[in-house]
Request: fold
Amino acid sequence: MAMQSFAQQQLGQRPRVTSPVINTDGSVTFNFYDPTAQKVSVSGDFEEIRNRRLEMQKGENGVWSVTTQPLNPELYSYSISVDGQRFIDPANSYVNRDISTLSNIFIVSKEQGDKGSLYAVNDVPHGTLSRVWYDSPTLGTQRRMTVYLPPTYDGKKAFPVLYLLHGHGGDETAWGDLGRASQILDNLIAQGKAVPMIVVMPNGNPPCDAAPGWWHAGMYVPDGNAFNQLGAKASMEESFMDIVNWVDKHYKTIKKRSGRAVTGLSMGGGHTFGISYRYPQTFDYYGLQSAAGRVKRNDAQFDQQMATLFASKPKLYWIAIGKEDFLMQMNTELRQYLDEHHYPYEYYENDGGHIWRNWRIYLTLFAQKIFKD
Amino acid sequence: MAMQSFAQQQLGQRPRVTSPVINTDGSVTFNFYDPTAQKVSVSGDFEEIRNRRLEMQKGENGVWSVTTQPLNPELYSYSISVDGQRFIDPANSYVNRDISTLSNIFIVSKEQGDKGSLYAVNDVPHGTLSRVWYDSPTLGTQRRMTVYLPPTYDGKKAFPVLYLLHGHGGDETAWGDLGRASQILDNLIAQGKAVPMIVVMPNGNPPCDAAPGWWHAGMYVPDGNAFNQLGAKASMEESFMDIVNWVDKHYKTIKKRSGRAVTGLSMGGGHTFGISYRYPQTFDYYGLQSAAGRVKRNDAQFDQQMATLFASKPKLYWIAIGKEDFLMQMNTELRQYLDEHHYPYEYYENDGGHIWRNWRIYLTLFAQKIFKD
Reply:
């Protein structure tokens, strides 16, 4: 409240601008006030513009505007460029943080049940989203993770657990914020498309105890992956059972293989791959999303671990990737290895690259495949 | 990750700028790159500048800079003005949202135990911070609130509960984000200065089910207090026992007066005042912070309610306000009424006005006064 009135004082006669405006046909209008700027544009992840900019036109009132073509139902990210400098849209307080970059977000939804509506907060029973600290004996630290409890969780009935892992540079907030995990689960559970489940979203960077701002490093702004240089006593995969053990101790879970699934994107897909052969009878469902998971050729121990894993007949080994993903070759090599050994898996390929849009889709698909048999 | 590389593509040869830089003497340097801007300044809530701007000077590399005088330990907010337009500092991903305004934040801390350190994440046991949805039969909706569970909460031992209420325009995220409630409680509990307690931070706007972005209104950007016009079946005070009843049912609480405290700021201070005489034997500790709590003169029912409240001898009736607070007169009238009736209360007055800096201080003080006898 204090800052609001403070801001109003500063801004003087600046007109109130609404941005973005989602039009009824699904097109989106961006508005931005700046009477002195020379060039203003919008950058975003809309199909329409991909990695180029949408130039805004200046109106007489100093408000720059541009309207997109109708967009498909989706959650979109964007930022505004003013004379070459990247900014958050000052009219839109909805932002996501990805590592140390903030972007504005908005959702296009045309009808109930479409992708936009799946990512929105609807009038359905909502689960609880908690930031909890757990002890990791292997890493020798306390660490923060995010836990989703389904709406029907009451501490009495046991639920299955999905372990949901982020990518390189992400943290324990990534799947909840960028990935819309609680909205997706709330909506899928309400529609009867997913089984009610606990979702555990740990921090996959062992050198960090928590996300920026919640770690003990204060308000240090990470330079991309700088925090991965800090070093840690063990890797994510080596320390992973600390998480499973803590969750099984502190929540009412189905404490056996059929009640456990693990999936992750990019680096977290690599973690999922490593976890699959490192702990072969701990999980029944694996999901490798755009996975940084490299097959080890001419490695007898790896071959043996993979043989043990598939001899134990996991219920699902799922690989998903976009056609334009820069990790496609690595995933192709992984599938070749599985094919050579006649290890059964499911494969899902769609458009697009190494982007959150795809990971939200993969979570939606994977969540509907698990804990049903 | 996708947006990060995307941003890098856009920004081209832009130099990497670090901002803010907290210098060892407690002064703070802001840096901002913009080779074409005419005038750049910083606005913030530092004592040094109050409601005026700190002009930045342009260097040869297109980076504008300014350094403050040494600042006292505190959490500060600021934004950057570029040719009259207010922006978030693009080098600082730490932001707070107040209603629909984003501001950057940073913390100055000089030594362990100072105010800055009290608001920081330290290497102490951490409580759990959860966003939970509860049913409000009185309002006929499900609603979201934030719950802090102390580090030693295990579902077996019962803990006292502090109900912590936000002001006009705030929501269930305000005390956790702007108010640093979980950091303050973690640190006070670790230092043995506060009793381990559950802290419940509800949404004090009955027309809203949740904070912006988590409510069912989608990504609507509220215009100040517009959402208070939506209407609701009952007021916050009328529906308040729904919250207490739900908390007592779902958490291991001390379900009696000596285990309950309520405090709030501004509108939430008014709610605390109303709750105090409406439910006179439900809470033992009351904290009115910069309270919008108006005495009802010539109102026999009010007089009777207040008489009942104080006849029941609550353990603490605490009133706190800053010398420059615009609600000082209202608080003076409230204290006059209490004095006239010889109703005992404690009064705390400090510098400053109707600002979060003071509310963090008041929470720190109040949390140390409750549940100790």
